[in-house]
Amino acid sequence: MLRIRRYLKPYMMMLIVSIILLFAQANLDLALPDYLSKIVNTGIQQSGVEGTVPEAMRRDTLERLTLFLSADDESTVRSAYTLVQPGTAAADQYTETYPLLAEKPIYVRNDISQAEIDQLSTPMAKGLLVVSALDMAMADPAKAAQMGGGLGNFDMSRLPPGTDLFAMLGQVPAAQRDQIATSVNERFATLGDKMISQTAVVQVKAEYEALGMDVGKLQTNYILRVGAIMLAVTLLSAVCTISVGYLSAKIAAGVGRDLRSDIFNKVENFSSAEFDKFPTASLITRSTNDITQLQMVTMFMVRMVFYAPIMGVGGTIRAIGKGSSMWWTIAVAVLVLISIIIVIVSIALPRFRLVQKLIDRLNLVARENLSGMMVIRAFNMQRFEEDRFDTANVDLTSNTLFIARVMAFMMPMMMFILNVLTVVILWVGAHQVAQANMQVGDMMAFLQYAMQIVFSFLMLSMLFIMLPRASVSADRIADVLETELAIKDPAQPKPLNGSFSGNVEFRNVSFRYPGADTDILHDISFVAKPGETTAFIGSTGSGKSTVVNLIPRFYDVTEGSILLDGVDIREVTQHALRDKIGYVPQKGVLFSGTIKSNLHYADENATDEELHTAVSIAQASGFVNSKPEGLAAEISQGGTNVSGGQRQRLSIARALVKKAPIYIFDDTFSALDFKTDAALRRALYESTSSSTILMVTQRVSTVKNAEQIVVLEKGRVVGKGTHQELMESCETYQEIALSQLSLEELSS
After folding, report:
1. Which residue range forms the structural domain that includes residue 408?
2. Mean pLDDT calculated for residue range 45-53
3. Is residue 154 a part of any domain in this protein?
4. Same domain for 377 and 308?
5. pTM (2 d.p.)
6. What is the CATH number of the domain that holds 249?
7. Using CA atoms, how far apart are residues 523 and 508, in angstroms rounded to an integer?
8. What integer is the mean pLDDT of 106-134?
9. Of 397, 362, 35, nearest in space to 223 by CA
10. What is the largest CA-CA distance in the chain?
11. Radius of gyration (Cα) for the chain, nearest Å?
């Protein structure tokens, strides 16, 4: 994957924006369980009462609870509240909320910070509990007896009925009141802060009811307010999710587009040596299936590789905050998950690496069958090819099924772990709730955080499973992109412009195919002049096509040099070189489109008149004009809707449209009958009289009138001259000529 990381650079800004959005989304998703906890704990269990520091209190309540606070805490509490008297201007804004204010003075909490509220929370909770307990004790002597030793020097069980204990406590010296406060703290030392707060909230609710507040409305408003926040958080999370999905798809599609474009451009510059290294079927797989794999993984990586860790780490931190005593449940689940992922990946990884090779093989067999269907039918080899395809298909299918079975095993295991974790959290959490160490809402939030943590690891596991196959695809793509081209343009190319005549010279040229042990061409030398036809003839395998394919640099010579107007072809750009050549391959190749679009390959600016002229010279006007659409007639892929001879003549016409100074005909006339061959050569002679023509052929009749015939035998020049000269001096040429024509025909 690292070998193609540079393709992410153009999308770094989108990637950074995606990461920011993912961070926001993760934090929003992590906030939802906390809000749920607040709805359950505060909205439902506490009737909307948010804390132990009331927004307002009766004057008697505040005076009483300060009796059980330390001097510092009492001072802090009194500074946090303001006494509001009935009938005053200040009372008007509070009377509707606190109806009791119409009759009695109350204390209203000032606008203080959350830090100050947190500081007051515990001492006020303890004071409220003591006041509540003493109220019950004064109302019921049995309650006083249950309180045991009393407070400081006061034994409440011995007080006469109807005694106002709070008025009595108000008369004691400050030192004794501090002793009472210490005694209060000792009584609550065994209770945790959570237990004190939960119990004190009940007293705050009772105080609100005493003030005449609508507690039901308070609860409803709290639930609606927190619910609205949850809805807003969910909507923001959805916006982030959609945005990240769009950006990740755009990044992945852009990377896929760039890779396909670069691979196509790279392959366009391949010489035959590179095509020998990368079979066509493999290049197709790399350009399609491999890039699709990378595109999919890129999209998932953008969406998961940052989101999942944030969710995992953030969820762990928040879960421990909700239930620190239950951290071990998540730790055990995560360890089991990681162990399963490691086992599954180690089993599936070798098979993932094999998938792409098997797809290559299947594509190769399918391509050979489709392109060679006529030969297969001619030799009745359908059953053999079916078996060959079936073998490749079964190999891919069995490998894919094995991977699918491994993956199918993973999901039930993940769900099993998830369900077991849920049961364990509910079991342990229920005991924590029963012991007042945790509230129900906190347990529900802890459970949700645990689910988020497990799912984050599940997302990462899916990514780890996809990465091996994508890594193989990335390496295969990088192999193509990093391939050193055997044929390159020079750093400082020479021009072929100006008065270019088209003189072609082979100077002591030898050549061997890449990886071969011996040369296939040996010390080839000749000069092909403008206005002349140089023909190459020889037995099959003598190197005729290889010679002419060296001129457009489909291969580079091993030794010697090829010169155009005295300039070595390796010293000019490939584009400039091929721009001077009209090339007709041994096998006529047409592209899907129309006759006109195929002819425009040579010159996209050519007029219809020029196209018709080229078609006429190539002896193709008969069948072109016979079609109702003429030049607009459709050509199917590979030119399969025209005959071999028609395909060859259209290939010749395409080369003629270029009006090049050099023409190469690589056994081009093999599909033509003798009459068409002769007519075409006459027309060529008239229309290309100033061009250099290099012609490969097996027919002596085709080259009889050539100004120069080069006879090849096992890659060596064994004869060079005109037809008459070779008939007198070259035994190889004589054998070829006599095998095709009679003496009378040869002498005519």
Report:
1. 2-37+224-481
2. 85
3. yes
4. yes
5. 0.74
6. 1.20.1560.10
7. 4
8. 85
9. 35
10. 155
11. 46
